[in-house]
Specification:
Largest sheet: 6 strands, mixed
Shape: globular
Order of helices and strands: EEEHEEHEHHHEHEHEE
Oligomer: single chain
Structural class: alpha/beta
Distance between the termini: 21 Å
Helix content: 25-40%
Radius of gyration: 17 Å
Strand content: 25-35%
Number of strands: 10
């Protein structure tokens, strides 16, 4: 059974079709690259699949249950517990330390502060940024910030990780380090990844590639 499945999802903004009858499947532990030029519908697809936005037509299924028809509260809980997200610029909370940023999803889920910070320290160590646990985002390099954001995305041990251009703002060396860390952690936990990228090198790390143009799937090519 697929972990994530989209069945004929479509989304329109005004007179513009952002997505047109998109089908997609993603298995547990699988890594899928979604590629395409700017404006092809990649970000809209991610928003529909993660439950941030409802499609106008079609269905989204996660772990055997319909996702898109759930309440906003239910979808929000799912994103906080079973789905992680890593964005291009990390979007760390600037007033919090690295450790506090990573602990945040656990605290929002009701975990005690001591346990959440202990888990955060473990993940920061796993990604090689433990020495920066007490620093705020403004004191970190771009690569360090993105590793902290990755630790925050993985601290709940999600079944699915959405990564939206996760290396797009980094130089090639820092980007490769973040990508390698993300792949290793996902393989260890059997976390599926849906990775949005315009970079062919990044897509090459994935198991399969799905290409969008003008909101339509052009190809799904096994790597």
């Amino acid at each position: 059974m697929s972990l994530l499945q989209a069945k004929g999802i479509s989304k329109r903004y005004g007179l513009t079709d952002a997505l047109v009858q998109v089908d997609l499947t993603l298995g547990a532990g699988e890594v899928l690259a979604v590629t395409g030029p700017s404006g092809s519908g990649k970000s809209t697809l991610l928003m529909c699949l993660s439950g941030i936005t409802r499609p106008d037509a079609g269905e989204v299924w996660f772990a055997g249950a319909r996702l898109d028809d759930r309440s906003e509260a239910s979808r929000s809980v799912l994103r906080r517990t079973e789905i992680g997200a890593l964005l291009q610029h990390g979007q760390l909370v600037p007033e919090l330390t690295a450790a506090e940023n990573v602990a945040l999803p656990l605290l929002l889920g009701g975990a005690r502060k001591a346990g959440a910070l202990a888990a955060a320290a473990e993940w920061l160590g796993l990604f090689g940024v433990a020495p920066h646990a007490d620093k705020r985002p403004g004191e970190l390099s771009g690569g360090q910030q993105q590793k902290v954001a990755l630790a925050r995305a993985m601290v709940t041990q999600p079944r699915l990780l959405f990564a939206d251009e996760p290396t797009g703002s980094l130089d090639s060396l820092a980007g490769e380090a973040v990508l390698a860390a993300m792949m290793a952690a996902a393989r260890e936990l059997n976390t599926a990844i849906l990775l949005i990228t315009h970079d062919a090198t990044v897509a090459g790390y994935c198991d399969r590639e799905l290409h969008l143009r003008d909101g339509r799937v052009l190809a799904g090519v096994a790597q």
